[in-house]
Amino acid sequence: MDFSLDTTSLIIVTIITAATPLLLAALGELVNEKSGVLNLGLEGMMVVGAVMAFLTVTSTGSATLAIIVAILSGMGMALIFSVLTLSLQSNQVATGLALTIFGLGLSSLIGINLVGMAYDGLPKLNIAFLSDLPFFGNVLFSHDILVYFSIVMVFVTYWFLNKTKYGLVLRAVGESHDAAHSIGYPVIKIRYMAALYGGAMSGLAGAYLSLAYSPMWADNMTAGRGWIALALVVFAMWMPSRVLLGAYMFGGITILQLHGQGMGIDMPSEFLSMLPYLATIIVLVLISRQAQNNYAPACLGKPFHSIR
Fold first, then answer.
1. Do the domain assignments include residue 18?
2. How far apart are CA 68 and CA 272, in angstroms?
3. CATH, residue 179
4. Rounded CA separation 130/124 (Å)
5. What are phi and psi of 180, to 5 degrees?
6. Which own/partner contact pairs does 94-99 have at CB distance under 8 Å and 24+ positions apart?
7. Which UniProt keywords apply (predicted)?
8. Which end of the chain has the smaller Cβ count within 10 Å, N or C?
9. How many domains, the chain?
């Protein structure tokens, strides 16, 4: 295969687009888990965001409105999860799994008449003469707004969690909700807000899938990306910078199934398709024990019972 500059830049752009929904969803879940809430329903929130974004853009023609609707849809799904787990004290793991099943079914129902329809995709932000630069113009300056937003949010998330009072309070709630409650912080309210933020980011990740990555609608178009995003949080040891690294690494593994046979690799396509999920399992097996023991919030997944 000819590795010209054009070919290399095309591969890098494909990696970036494959990584963006993973990065968005994982950043939302990282903040969610930092507050002590474990939401396994990313897949469900993403797929509902995807179908609602595509339904909106095909009905109104407005990509901006579609993104807003996707964010609100993800928040709505997260609100259901929050009411069940934070207010009604249901098991977070079981509720998250149920949310994924519910989201997949709901998206299939909503999108039944959308199958086969197509969309032109989000417009690219071609930046003056920068987009015309050889190699770097295509790689760095010719993406849609959500790609740039996902990268900016890595730095915003780091700043929020480590440099602001509200971020430190959120982390305190995740490390010891009883201690945070004892000094007057509203644990449940903070966890509600973190969960809604995680839902918003998952809905946005879903919108990226149906509006930019594959501008169309198909049942179960998230194809397990929600689970990969969950694994990314563990892989990153709950650090935003490592989420960025992990998302692009998994994005690279994902596009192998697209470029592998074109490179002359004699390997069954089924094996190439399972590479991202195989890599997810291997990464979790290798690092999850150490990561959970040293970096996971101490109250992750534990219900909070307020003493009145």
1. yes
2. 35
3. 1.10.3470
4. 13
5. -65, -40
6. 95/41, 96/38, 96/39, 96/40, 96/41, 97/40, 97/41, 98/41, 99/39, 99/40, 99/41, 99/44, 99/45
7. Cell membrane, Membrane, Transmembrane, Transmembrane helix
8. C
9. 1
Is 302 among the domain residues? no
Question: 3-class SS at 216?
Answer: strand
**pLDDT (tens digit, 9 = 90+) per residue, 233-286?**
988 889 999 999 989 988 887 777 666 655 556 666 666 667 667 776 776 666
Task: Kindly state the tokens that stand for 297.
Answer: 């919030």
Predicted pLDDT of residue 269: 61
Is 231 inside a domain boundary?
yes
- 3-class SS at 247? helix
In this predicted structure, the answer to whether residue 290 has a pLDDT above a threshold of 80 is: no
Report pLDDT digits (tens) over 135-174: 777 788 888 899 999 999 999 999 999 999 999 999 999 9
Q: What's the domain range around 283?
A: 5-294
* pLDDT value for 1: 46
How many C-beta neighbours within 10 Å does residue 260 have?
A: 17
Quick one: how far is CA 171 from the chain centroid? 20
- pTM of the full structure: 0.90
Residue-wise DSSP of 128-184: GGGGGSTTHHHHHSS--HHHHHHHHHHHHHHHHHHHSHHHHHHHHHHH-HHHHHHTT
Closest CA to 248 of 28, 26, 19, 24: 19
Determine what percent of the chain is predicted with pLDDT higher than 90: 57
DSSP tag of 91: -
